[in-house]
């Protein structure tokens, strides 16, 4: 009779190899019920793992891959960087390790998709992707049958992935409603990454408020860029507003970097914020409360997105019957000085 393996123990228990390894190594991240089930199977089948087998199991089951597009991993636009950092903290709490791979545009070509080595070598238990990664690349990852958590992106083509999103529709809705409630009728929207589901949802919320207030939307007031240079594009639109090429009294920018670029351009051209033009951003990055005037914005739960991604992914890895889920996190309006509201809030910076 051949010796039973850790893989067979995991299969009989309906858990991952990593969970069996945690029990073998007396780690505390396994429930009492699951721990007893595994221990009973180990005893019943007289399983005695070799040191090498234990080390290999620990290595593979405790490693999680993180994938981010190279242009999104920067200090200028730290949204995804902060999600990644929060995910690192959470994986450490879960006795796991997070490996990062930055993906470049040339890695995503349909005829030559280049997946990270840790995916091809199968040295990871699961993958967290963050942000606007081309769908053909995500599909190729999904074809590897590795548990996935997809942060700030959604596609129905990824049937077995966990999705972690902020409520982007409400972000656009609340931001624009705040401006409409202040009496603005000419409200522009600045958006880039226009094929990104999160940005499309923010635009949809913006358009819904205009519809509810019977505000007509001239085409010129929806300013959309197909590239990803948010600060530069916000600055470019700000110059056009200052030159009266775009006739508005308020702006909703779909991320804070664009809002800050717009404020800088307006200020340099003698346009006062919020007296002449009110501005609301989205994300609540650290710079939002450092610029003058401080930026009114929608706070996206960046830290929570990273934490949820790790927890949902580990559930997919460890629980045989886990059903991948869509998790939508709430957003919040943070009123500061850039919109002209009298109800300003004092906010402390919470850096991840």
In short:
The protein is α/β, with parallel strands linked by helices and 352 residues long. It has 12 helices and 12 strands. The protein has a 6-stranded parallel β-sheet. It has a 4-stranded parallel β-sheet with strand order 7-6-8-9, sandwiched between helices.
What does this structure look like?
This protein is α/β, with parallel strands linked by helices and 352 residues long. It folds into 3 domains: 6-59, 434 Repressor (Amino-terminal Domain); 62-166 and 302-330, Rossmann fold (3-Layer(aba) Sandwich), CATH 3.40.50.2300; 168-300, Response regulator (Rossmann fold, 3-Layer(aba) Sandwich). It contains 12 helices and 12 strands. The chain has helices at 6-13, 17-24, 32-44, 51-61, 79-93, 117-120, 135-142, 168-181, 197-212, 230-242, 256-268, 302-318, and strands at residues 63-69, 97-103, 126-130, 148-151, 161-166, 187-191, 222-224, 250-253, 278-280, 297-299, 326-329, 332-334. The protein has a 6-stranded parallel β-sheet with strand order 2-1-3-4-5-11. Helix 1 (6-13) crosses helix 3 (32-44), helix 2 crosses helix 4 (51-61) and helix 10 (230-242) packs parallel to helix 11 (256-268). The longest helix has 17 residues, at 302-318. It is elongated and about 80 Å long. It starts with 5 loop residues before the first helix and ends in an 18-residue tail after the last strand. Residues 345-352 have low confidence and may be disordered.
């Amino acid at each position: 009779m051949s010796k039973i393996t850790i893989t067979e123990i995991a299969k009989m228990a309906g858990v991952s190899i990593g969970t069996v390894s945690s029990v073998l190594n007396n780690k505390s991240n396994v429930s009492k019920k699951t721990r007893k089930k595994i221990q009973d199977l180990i005893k019943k089948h007289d399983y005695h793992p070799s040191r090498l087998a234990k080390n290999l199991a620990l290595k593979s089951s405790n490693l999680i891959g993180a994938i981010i597009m190279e242009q999104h991993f920067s200090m200028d636009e730290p949204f995804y960087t902060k999600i990644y950092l929060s995910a690192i903290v959470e994986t450490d709490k879960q006795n796991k390790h997070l490996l990062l791979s930055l993906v470049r545009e040339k890695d995503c070509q349909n005829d030559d998709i280049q997946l990270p080595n840790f995916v091809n070598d199968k040295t990871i238990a699961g993958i967290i992707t963050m942000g606007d990664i081309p769908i053909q690349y995500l599909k190729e990852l999904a074809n590897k049958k590795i548990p996935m958590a997809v942060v700030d992106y959604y596609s129905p083509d990824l049937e077995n992935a966990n999705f972690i999103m902020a409520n982007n529709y409400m972000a656009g809705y609340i931001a624009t409603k705040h401006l409409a409630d202040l009496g603005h009728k000419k409200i522009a929207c600045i958006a880039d990454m226009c094929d990104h589901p999160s940005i499309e949802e923010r635009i949809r919320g913006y358009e819904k408020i205009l519809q509810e207030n019977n505000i007509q939307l001239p085409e010129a007031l929806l300013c959309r860029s197909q590239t990803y240079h948010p600060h530069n594009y916000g600055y470019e639109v700000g110059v056009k507003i200052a030159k009266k090429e775009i006739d508005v009294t308020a702006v909703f920018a779909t991320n804070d970097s664009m809002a800050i670029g717009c404020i800088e351009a307006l200020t340099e051209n003698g346009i006062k914020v919020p007296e002449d033009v009110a501005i609301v951003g989205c994300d609540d990055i650290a710079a939002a409360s450092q610029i003058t005037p401080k930026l009114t914005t929608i706070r996206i739960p960046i830290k929570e997105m990273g934490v949820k991604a790790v927890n949902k992914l580990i559930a997919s890895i460890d629980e045989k019957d886990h059903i991948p889920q869509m998790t939508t996190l709430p957003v919040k309006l943070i009123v500061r000085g850039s919109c002209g509201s009298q109800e300003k809030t004092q906010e402390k910076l919470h850096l991840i």
